[in-house]
Amino acid sequence: MKTGAGVENIMLNRKFREDSIETYKQAERAYETAKTDVVKASEELFGERKRLKSIIGFNWDAINQLKNKTNEMEIEVEKIELEYRRFDTFLLEVQTEIAATQKMVSTAEAIAMSAATISMTPTTAAAIATTFRTVSTGAAISGSLAANASMAWLGGSALATGGGLAVGSGLMGLAGPVGWSILIAAGVFQNGKNKKIGREALEKATALKKERVSLKGNEREISELSKLTVQSRLGLNRLLNEIEPKLDAYGWDMRRIDQDQDLLERIGVLINTLGSAAKLLNKKVGGAV
Question: Do 275 and 83 touch, CB atoms closer than 8 A?
C-alpha cells in the first residue's frame, strides 16, 4: 500500500506530466501557425518568381535581337541565359519529383495528408523547394532532393524522407513527433513514467519554440525576397518601355546605337538589371546558393 507521501508524490508527478504535455501542445500549435505563415509567404514568393521569370524571358529576347553586339555584350547575355535556365531546370526537376512521389503515396497516407494542418499541393511543395536552401552543408542540391525535403517537412509521404537527408533551418520537421500525438490522445502513460514523460515533453516543447523563432526569421527573409522580386520585375518593365522606341528608331543595330551615349548607358543598365534579376530567381532563404 502506498504511503501518504507516496500518493502525494504520484499526484505531483502526474500534474508535472499533464502540465508539461500542455506546454508541448501549446508549443506545437504555435509552431504550426508559424509553419503555415512560412508556407503562405513561400507560395507568394513562388508566384512572384514565375512572373519575374516571364519578364526576364521577354527582356532577354529583346536584348538578343540586337544586331552587331560586342563580345562583352554577348558574354553578358549568355550569363543571363545560363542563370535563367538554371531556375527552369531546377523547377522542372522539382515538379517531376513531386509528381512521381505523389503517384506512390498510398491511400492511407493520402488520408493522413488531407488531415494535416497544411494541405500539400504540388504548388506548395514546389514553392518550399525553390525557397529554401535545404541542405545544411550549403552545397548545391538537386531538384529531387529539394522536393523530397519539402514534402517531408510539409507532412507528405514517408518516401520523401530520403537517405542521409541533412535538412536546414526551417525544414526540421519537428511538429508532431512520431507516436507522441497518438500516445497523448490515448492517455496510455503509466504513473511510473510521469516524470520521464514530463521531461521529454518539455524538451520537445523547447525544440519547437526554438524552431518557431527560426521560422519567423525565415518568414521575414522570404517577404523581403518577394519585395525585391516585385521591384526587379517592375524595374525591368520600365527600362524596356523607355528604350524600346529608340531601339526601333536605330533598327536594333548596335553600330548605329553607338552614336547615342544615353541609349548605350540605358542598355547597359538593362543588361545589368537582367543579370541581377536572373540571380534573384535562384536566391534561397538561409544561404546565397
Answer: yes
pTM of the entire structure? 0.80
Report d(CA 42, CA 34) in Å as an integer. Answer: 12
The CA-based diameter of the chain, rounded to the nearest angstrom, is 103
Backbone angles phi, psi at 282, to 5 degrees: -100, 0
The percent of residues above 90 in pLDDT, for the chain, comes to 42
Average pLDDT over every residue of 40-54: 96
Distance CA 282, CA 271 (A): 18
State the distance between the two ends of the chain, measured CA to CA, in whole angstroms.
65
Residues 6+ apart with CB under 8 A from 222: 38, 41, 42, 44, 45, 131, 285
pLDDT digits (tens, 9 = 90+) for 173-193: 333 443 455 455 545 455 557
Residue 210's closest CA among 38, 34, 88? Answer: 34
Nearest to 155 by CA among 130, 128, 184, 182: 128
Residue 20 or residue 114, greater confidence? 20
Cβ neighbours of residue 17 closer than 8 Å, sequence gap 6 or more: 189, 194, 195, 197, 198, 201
Residue 122's pLDDT band (boundaries 50, 70, 90)? confident
The SS3 call for residue 24 is helix
Block residue for cell numbers 542521409: 164
